[in-house]
Every structure is written in structure tokens, then in C-alpha cells.
């Protein structure tokens, strides 16, 4: 069987005679037809739409824009004669595969953005006894292979091997696959390290739970011998890079629209570093941390962080040029006038986004032997630094805001209470007949999966883990508003009996 055929199989609906029928477009259609995809319209990207007062990106619009950028990158690379032979050697790069993977990459993202991911992971590991915990990328892979039922005879979305492999930004499990596990490499791949302060918890980011590892291996089998076990496929690398680009650009748009990204504070920080870079670089780490709020020091900490984490590409001259480019385009450009909702303001935002998107897509290259912390598809050095500085702006001037922290602490408390309440309901022997049918189904699915991967586990132990996984799967599939409504019902606060049933 040739490479193209092997990239297709695993989508069991595809017969050998159908190889010319664009099965990757079928994959894309299956993804966008899934209720899990529609649900993303009610899931937070960074700022909860309900609390912002203005239209901001949600996980659905983010996924659509990632797909747009990813397809543009794939089409440019496949048309570039410099890379055609190399891409073929690495396993191929089909724009339809890349687009489908980009559309599906956030299907498993839970309510309330990355905060929800952190809360569910903590609860899964510490409260429900699930060694794999929760991870948004692994949950997306679980949805397309297990929990989303497309028809009575199919578990998952029945996607081709190539699209499933392209979904795997982090093609390893939390603890055990592959061997040796990539977190033991020096340096480890991006995302493979354990979270700070939790060295025994396995990788911070991973692409599949233990229950889906056999599917992971099957999806990546066509690429064996072409890329390392822990390395992304070219198509996954394109999708990952597109996600980075969209995150860096489009989230800045949101923060500008909402009015929380202020020109003065960003300008003060960037210009102070530019004026005092030589003096700041002479400070020891201890001296630098002694005045963390003094202008310019946060940028200097970023420069040092990049050298520690990504010495393979970090470069002081490129970093300085990136600070200047972002200051010119963002501070002196986009943020120069407050967003007032006018047509002119919208046009300015659109031009800013289009200009940066073109700039970054045009700086994509393919390399045969990438550094461990990069994929085969990567940004050139100058633009890589620009993306890091853009991310720094919204992390430092939005995500660190006390008012956002206040909002997120409430959301974390809500999710914690919801998981605890559902788990208690599941354990109540007098309520078994009145549990939501989907929760019943998820318990049965998890029981069967756990028995298949760990037949040595005792029945009671397996049941405990199955109930925990079912609760996590159930909550992760809610929208923000559904999570709020369900907790209101379970807490007795809701006065509308039947309208709460839509989440059950």
C-alpha cells in the first residue's frame, strides 16, 4: 500500500476504489457537521463574550480563522518548488488535511477558556483519581475517535489517518508513550515538560489519553521512519503554526475592541526597555526581580526567558527589532486611537490583522532537521520574535489584570462545584434511574475503554475511574452558559424546570 493510501485508511468508510474522491474534504464536512463544532460558538477564547459587552472571538471564530491561516500556509508551501521534495519525504502536506485539522483542533476545549482546562485537569487528577487528568488537545482527539458518535455503527467521526495525525500537536501521552518519553529529552519538545512545581505529573501538554493511544499509533503509522515518534507531522506543524499566528494577532484585536489594551501602558513598557536595554541587561536576575513593576523590566524578563527556553533561535538583535516592529505597528498604529465601534475603527483593525497575517504567512519555512522545540514548519527568526512580543503584550497587559483574575476565580469555583455536584449525583444509589442518559452512556464507554487498555485493574477500581472520566467528558462538552445553567439547576437556584433540560 502506497503512502497516500496509508494516509487515508483509519477512516473506515473509505474503500480502496474511492482514493480519488477527496476523502479529506469529507473529513472536513464531518467535523463542521458535528455538534461539538457548533458548541464552540458558546465557549470562551480568552475573554468571555458575556462579560465583554462587545463581539469578541469565541472558540468557533478562532477555529475558523486558524483554518483560514493554515490553509493559506499549506497552499503556499505546496506551491513552492524549494520544498516539494522535502515535504514528500516527510509524508506530505494536503491543504484539505490541514484545514480539517485546524477546524477540529479545539473541539475538546472546555467552558471558560484555558482556565477551564486547568481546573478540570486539577479535579481529574486530584479529586477523581485519573492519572491522565484533562488536556484540551487530548480531549479533542478523544472526541474525534471516541465520544462523538456520527452514526449507530461508528464511534468517533471516522476520520482519515492523515487528519487524525495532523490533530496531534503533541504526539505523546501524558506519562508513557512513546518510549523513551519525550519529557526526558534534553531539551524536551515544546509542551512535553512537566508543569512548574509538579515534576511527577507527566507532560503539561499531550495529544491523547491512554485510552486513545492505539488510535494515535495507527494514525501516525504512515509517517514511521519519516519523522521522529515525538515529532509533529508537517500538516500538524502547519496547523500548530497557524494557531500561534491567529492567537498572537486576533486576540490583540479583541483586547483593543474591549478597551483593556491601553496605548500608554504598553508604550511605557516597550519604550523603557528600548531606552534602557543596555543597563537592564547588566542586572542580575535577583536585581531584575527586585523591581518587577518598573517599566522595561518585564520586556527584559521576556528576553531572558526566550534565551533559556529557546536558545536555538533567540537572538538579541532580532528581539530588539521585534520590539521596535510591535511598538511601531501596535502602539503607534492600532492603539493610537481608542476603538469606538465606527466603520473607520473596524477597517483599521481589519487592515492591521490582514497586514500581520500576510507578513507571518510569508515568513514560513520548512526545514529537514528542526530543533527539538520546533516542528518542520516554522517562522523565520525575525517573525518568530515578533510573535513572542505580541504574545507578551496580551499576557502582560490583559491576562495579568486583577479584574480578569476576579472573573476567572468565580468561573473556577463554578466548575469545581459543578464537577463535585455531578459526581455526587452519579454516586447516589437512589438516583441511578434518573441520571442524564448521556452521563450513563459516558460511564459505559469509559468502562469499556479502561478494561481494554488495563484489563488487570479490578472492577471497582475501573468503575471509579470510569465515573470520573464520564463526569469530566460531560462537563467538558458544555458551553459557558450551559455550565452556568446546569449549576443553577443543581444548586436549586433555577426556577425554570424544563428549560434546563437542554444540557442533559
Automatic annotation (TrEMBL):
The keyword Transit peptide does not apply. The keyword Hydrolase applies. Pfam families: HD. It comes from the Bacteria. PROSITE patterns: HD. SMART domains: HDc. Residues 59-248 form the HD domain. This is dGTPase. Residues 177-206 are annotated as: Disordered. It comes from Phytohabitans houttuyneae. Keywords: Hydrolase. One of its GO terms (molecular function) is dGTPase activity.
Amino acid at each position: 500500500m502506497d503512502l497516500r493510501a496509508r494516509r487515508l485508511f483509519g477512516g473506515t468508510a473509505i474503500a480502496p476504489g474511492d482514493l480519488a474522491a477527496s476523502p479529506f474534504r469529507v473529513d472536513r464536512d464531518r467535523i463542521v457537521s458535528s455538534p461539538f463544532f457548533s458548541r464552540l460558538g458558546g465557549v470562551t477564547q480568552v475573554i468571555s463574550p458575556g462579560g465583554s459587552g462587545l463581539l469578541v472571538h469565541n472558540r468557533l471564530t478562532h477555529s475558523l480563522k486558524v483554518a483560514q491561516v493554515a490553509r493559506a500556509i499549506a497552499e503556499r508551501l505546496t506551491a513552492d518548488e524549494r520544498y516539494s521534495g522535502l515535504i514528500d519525504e516527510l509524508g506530505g502536506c494536503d491543504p484539505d488535511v490541514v484545514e480539517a485539522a485546524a477546524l477540529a483542533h479545539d473541539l475538546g476545549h472546555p467552558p471558560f477558556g484555558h482556565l477551564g482546562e486547568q481546573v478540570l485537569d486539577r479535579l481529574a487528577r486530584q479529586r477523581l483519581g485519573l492519572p491522565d487528568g484533562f488536556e484540551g488537545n487530548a480531549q479533542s482527539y478523544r472526541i474525534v475517535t471516541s465520544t462523538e458518535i456520527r452514526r449507530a455503527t461508528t464511534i468517533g467521526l471516522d476520520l482519515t489517518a492523515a487528519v487524525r495525525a495532523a490533530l496531534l500537536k503533541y504526539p505523546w501521552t501524558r506519562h508513557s508513550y512513546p518510549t523513551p518519553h519525550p519529557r526526558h529529552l534534553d531539551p524536551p519538545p515544546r509542551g512535553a515538560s512537566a508543569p512548574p512545581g509538579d515534576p511527577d505529573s507527566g507532560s503539561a501538554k499531550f495529544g491523547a489519553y491512554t485510552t486513545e493511544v492505539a488510535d494515535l499509533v495507527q494514525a501516525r503509522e504512515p509517517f514511521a521512519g519519516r519523522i521522529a515518534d515525538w515529532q509533529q507531522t508537517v500538516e500538524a506543524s502547519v496547523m500548530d503554526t497557524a494557531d500561534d499566528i491567529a492567537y498572537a494577532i486576533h486576540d490583540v484585536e479583541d483586547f483593543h475592541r474591549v478597551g483593556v489594551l491601553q496605548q500608554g501602558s504598553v508604550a511605557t513598557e516597550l519604550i523603557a526597555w528600548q531606552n534602557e536595554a543596555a543597563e537592564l541587561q547588566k542586572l542580575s536576575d535577583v536585581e531584575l526581580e527586585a523591581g518587577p513593576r518598573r517599566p522595561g523590566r518585564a520586556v527584559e524578563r521576556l528576553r531572558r526567558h526566550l534565551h533559556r527556553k529557546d536558545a536555538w533561535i533567540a537572538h538579541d538583535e532580532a528581539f530588539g527589532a521585534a520590539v521596535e516592529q510591535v511598538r511601531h505597528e501596535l502602539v503607534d498604529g492600532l492603539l493610537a486611537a481608542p476603538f469606538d465601534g465606527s466603520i473607520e475603527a473596524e477597517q483599521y483593525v481589519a487592515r492591521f490583522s490582514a497586514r500581520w497575517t500576510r507578513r507571518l504567512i510569508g515568513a514560513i519555512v520548512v526545514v529537514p532537521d528542526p530543533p527539538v522545540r520546533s516542528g518542520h514548519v516554522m517562522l523565520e527568526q525575525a517573525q518568530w520574535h515578533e510573535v513572542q512580543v505580541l504574545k507578551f503584550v496580551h499576557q502582560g497587559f490583559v491576562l495579568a489584570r486583577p479584574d480578569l483574575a476576579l472573573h476567572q476565580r468565580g468561573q473556577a469555583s463554578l466548575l469545581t462545584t459543578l464537577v463535585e455536584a455531578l459526581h455526587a449525583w452519579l454516586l447516589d444509589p437512589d438516583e441511578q434511574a434518573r441520571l442524564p442518559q448521556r452521563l450513563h452512556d459516558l460511564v459505559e464507554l469509559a468502562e469499556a475503554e479502561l478494561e481494554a487498555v488495563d484489563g488487570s485493574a479490578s472492577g471497582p477500581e475501573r468503575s471509579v475511574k470510569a465515573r470520573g472520566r464520564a463526569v469530566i467528558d460531560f462537563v467538558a462538552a458544555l458551553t459557558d452558559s450551559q455550565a452556568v445553567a446546569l449549576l443553577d439547576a443543581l444548586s436549586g437556584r433555577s426556577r425554570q424546570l424544563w428549560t434546563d433540560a437542554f444540557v442533559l
